Structure prediction request, 426 residues.
Amino acid sequence: MLARAKTHRFLALVIVAACNEHDEWVLSVGHALGTIDTVQCTYESTMGTRGRIVALRTWSVFALLLACGTSPTMPRPDATTGTGMEGGMGNDAGADAKGSFAPFLFTAEMASNTVAKVDLATGTVMKRVEVGQAPVDLAHDSARGYVYVSASEDGLSVVRMSDLNVASLAVPGLGKAPIGLAFTSAGDRLLVTTRGSDGKPSADDTVDFVSLNATTWPPTAKLEGSTSVREHPVCVLIDQKGTPALVNVRDKLGIALIDMSTRAIVAQAANLPAHAEPEGCSRHPSKNIAYVTLHGTSRSIQIVDLDARNFGALVPIAHTESARPSGGWFTPDGNRFYVSGQSVNTVFLFDTSTVTSPTQDTPVALKVGIAPHTIIFVGDKAYVANTANGRPTGSISVIANWAATPTVEATIASDLKDPLGFVFVD
Prediction:
């Protein structure tokens, strides 16, 4: 079922970030895939105190999971992060996930080196599993029951969901400090954004292409090659058709397209505003359109046509204060786009029924927890990861009626440690 023609050429969306003028950055990473779910991630780092990622995607958000229990008596609502393949920092508002409902949410906890399993019925953390230092992104291979984890201070690891067994995924030659993850639709290749040979944002940072053999446990992996994207690639997003690729580079490159068969950069945005800091990325669930949220002073959304390889209009995010968006996520029906205003603890709403011309619903400004990042939609509710910007704990805000008149109805799991991405696992 997770097959693709070998003649297809794939493109991937990557966000590369660097410090802004305030010596702080939050990166949202997203990835999208055709038949696999998605997750997003963002992360932050304060220069001079710690040079590591502490919050999430997709990009995200792309940020995912543990094993998830199932409830045979409850029908499962649709669940999506608005990203693509199950897992990954990117956020491709892909197809709804359906099946028996497991009322659990899994989130990567940057500060405790764990993935937490949250019971949505009680709003509490049920279990944690260690996955490596500073986990940033997760990508779920639902066909095989594995979750791949990028630990920004460790490397890659994989969790077998049947028994929560964790194994290191050795990839000789892989760049250091992996961040964003994205699967091809067949689940046999993994894209990884890295901080190159020195583990720091620098000119040798890459997007690495990894081939996977998941027929045995633990899976094995081999580096196919790398694309140099200059300073700090974060978000990886594979387009809906698996043909062109898009890359967001937060520092030097901006937003670019990568051909996944040749690994060559084939296009890039030429006129981004100064200090744009492209961070979050999300792909529409049915149209091959991506939105890139610009975290910098422009506080706007860049529209990208993945078919035409065209970088369209910039759409401003209106707010009385500097919103500094960490990312945005399409709803499962594609008619709305929710934006996390990281610096103002607020979630904003755009009408995307005309996806090439979104309009902001300015009366909607939903106050959530500290430093909101990833958003996932489950049934008629949306769950927001409040990373708390490196504070000891974070939380999850619950938004009711995301398709109608949204309201913040609760805060749950207030003992999370820098929660990053979300995912549900059947």
Remarks:
- The two ends are 17 Å apart (CA to CA).
